Structures are given as structure tokens and as C-alpha cells.
Amino acid sequence: MAFESFGEFLQMGGYGFYVWLSFFLSFLVIAGVALDAALGRRRLQRQSQTLQRRKRRLAKRQQSPVKESTR
Asked: Cα separation of 60 and 54, whole Å?
């Protein structure tokens, strides 16, 4: 479909409101999914690092001799 002017392009033959609203909402949803994926990846990396540190600390404690408490 060819349009004579930019205004006709925006109006989309009378359906411009629905076309551009759909386009905008689709863009927002896709951007939200991308943002959620990026933040989820960062959160997963932090959790993984925390778990690795915890495992190293536990391994270090198990290797060191256990001190008896004197009460």
C-alpha cells in the first residue's frame, strides 16, 4: 500500500489509531521482556557468585581442624 503523504501514512486509511496503538503496546511488551531477561540474568549471576563463595567458605571450614569449646 502506497501513501500519498506522511499524514496518510499516520492515519493508515482510518485505522491509524489502532495500528499505532498496537505497534506501541507491542514495542512496550517486547522491551519489558528484554529488560526482565537482562535483569534476571544479572540476578542469576549474583546468586551464582554468592553460592560459589558460600561453598568455598564451607569447604575451607571443613578442611580446618575443629576447635573444641572450653566451657
From this structure: 10
Q: List, for residues 22-53, the tens digit of each pLDDT value.
A: 999 999 999 999 999 999 999 999 999 999 99
**Are the C-beta atoms of residues 3 and 9 closer than 8 Å to each other?**
yes
What is this structure's pTM? 0.60
- How far is 71 from 67, CA to CA, in rounded Å? 12
- The Cα 47–Cα 15 span in angstroms is 48
CA 71 → CA 61, 64, 65, 68, distances in Å?
22, 21, 19, 9
Closest listed residue to residue 20, CA positions, set 7, 30, 11, 28? 11
Decide if 10 contacts 16 (C-beta within 8 A). yes
Domain extents in the chain: 34-59
